[in-house]
Amino acid sequence: MIDRTVVLDRAQTRLGIGDRWGQTVGRHRWLVLAVWLLIAVGSAALYPALQNSLVGANFSVPGTESSRADALVEQHFSSFGSEQLVVTFTSDRVRVADPAFRERVGETVSALRQSPDVLRVVDPYETAGFVPQISEDGTSALAFVGVGGDPRDRIATAERIQKLIDGASDGGIDVAATGYSPMTVDLTKVESEDAVRAESIGLPLAFVLLILALGSVVAGIVPLVTTGIGVLAAFGVFSL
Q1: What is each CA distance from 43 to 30, 50, 142, in whole angstroms?
Q2: How many domains is the chain partitioned into structurally?
Q3: What is the structure's pLDDT at 143?
């Protein structure tokens, strides 16, 4: 029987970058875990700052006639602010001319005018015959609310205005705020609720599938933990 000696080429036994990195991480595993734990904690602490820095999408197109018109309105009619919200008063039972309707509009307009976030409020009853703020059938009325600041400030103002008029709907009269910023607030709220609902379903399902695929609870947890830390780290980077 002939003995054959296989001589491996040194180039074939040379470790790649991934192999060397894996060995380094294995040798310093506790240090690596500590660093990633610090990254996760720091990123979680920065997450509120990221939320506060986010603003709604800007759908305006620079250079268009509408954007130039907005700039001219803000320049020549600064008392109306950089954005005009609309507070709607609607009812199927009470008419605009009824004292109860007038009282509800008056109370809401007075509260808005006392708010430091509001620059100007146009009462629907004060512009009769000039600006059509009252519907022909007498079931609806509009109050224009001027607010200022950059988009982030206006969104925060819209949130406070919505809270201010939350309790105004009563006696068959519905009061609501609409406009770009209120729409952005509502859209963000719906998106956040949908994301939480999707994650509450997707994460447990992914965990079960990982356990079935990998055959171990620990093996199923590891990908979820690493993914979660990666997402937190991304949030931390974006918030800087």
Answers
A1: 20, 10, 44
A2: 2
A3: 93
